[in-house]
Amino acid sequence: MKVAKFGGSSVANAEQLRKVANIIQDDRDRKVIVVSAPGKRFSEDTKVTDLLIEMGEAFLNNKPYEDKLETVLNRFKDITNELNISDEVINEIKQGVVEIFASDNSAELKMDAIKATGEDSLAKVLSVYLQSLGLKAAYLNPADAGIFVSDNPGSAQILEESYDHLYKLRDRDEIVIIPGFFGYTKDGKLITFSRGGSDITGSIVAAGVKADLYENFTDVDSVYCVNPNIVPSPKEITSLTYKEMRELSYAGFSVFHDEALIPAFKADIPVCIKNTNNPQAMGTIIVSKKEPQPNPVVGIASDTGFVSIYISKYLMNREIGFGRKLLTILEDEGISFEHTPSGIDDISVIIRESRMTKEKEERVITRIKNELHPDTVHIDRDLALIMVVGEGMDSTVGLADKATHAFAEANVNLEMINQGSSEVSMMFGIKSSKVDESVRALYKTFFG
Length: 448
Ligand code: ASP
Description:
Radius of gyration: 24 Å
Number of domains: 2
CATH architecture of the largest domain: 3-Layer(aba) Sandwich
Bound molecules: aspartic acid
Shape: globular
Strand order of the largest sheet: 3-4-2-1-7-11-12-10
Number of helices: 14
Structural class: alpha/beta
């Protein structure tokens, strides 16, 4: 039994939905389907979810929202017209929106219900379309599927009991279409996952039904070993482990929603990333374990937008509690940190720039000065991190040598090196302006 999830670009218009239907028909093991809301049809287009958010915000700010609703309705009308199926969904959306806006719910709950309309309506449309093709298919609301979540609007967490409910889907003989991106609290409130959360639903459903495979259909043939915007037509990754995927996604590989792999990983279900526009391509498979490879490096990821707080103090290594006090200051400001490389008398804390506003930065620096009495404290900006990722790197001689040579050849100064805390990656900190040439040099070394 396979669970197939189709992302926004795969369901963006009627033409894409025809491809989706073919893919479902091609393999009768694809019994449970999870869908996103219609995404962009062309690069300047707007995703239905973004239109819905704009509409919800307009309503909540007492501004006219009707034009946004009209645009959403037209997106669905185009689909139903072209597929020659009933447009009942249009009335359902209109009525749903009226009910959501008129309810006594909080602004947050209204917003979640509005956001979920895209997925919910698309799931209905797809099931009607599959029925029109003579398939036994049924739309299934997440509440009826048993997808129960915590009461955190916009960032729902799945409740463990959902998996048992979902297992019962195995008994159904029709193809079941479930909208992604949202679930319900035990007392019936609709709550969405974080943005991009249909991936999470897909993974949860795959874990719940104990699928043999979770197929995640998107618009690329596979995961590339490096960002194709930096290296044109890079090598494709045919298989990688969950751990490798996680390390890669940490630094800019945005194939998958961060949280999405967890349920499938815990249930040990292989995940296959495939292309709706080219379903014949093998795709990339993500598994728990794989055979050792001659070249253990599977990918190179890079991301900019990091800052480093550098602190030095003579005899820091003897001062008990220094690290704790430093991290408490960050905790008090609600800032999570990424790495803390340290030396005998110094420590750096690497943080994502987006988590450190100007005001927070000022408060953090003042408190570090007042409470820790360092000799020096300063912030370095424009830091980029490059991760060289692959299981088996820990037991292969000479990889760090190769990597540092590549940086030297590209004439890039290394600000930071971190290897050891993870057995599957080496991390390098460099100036953001040097990312592209560094990644190209590393690619040449490991894959060229
Ligand atoms: N439609 C939602 C979003 O755009 C969820 C998803 O597509 O996965 O965030």
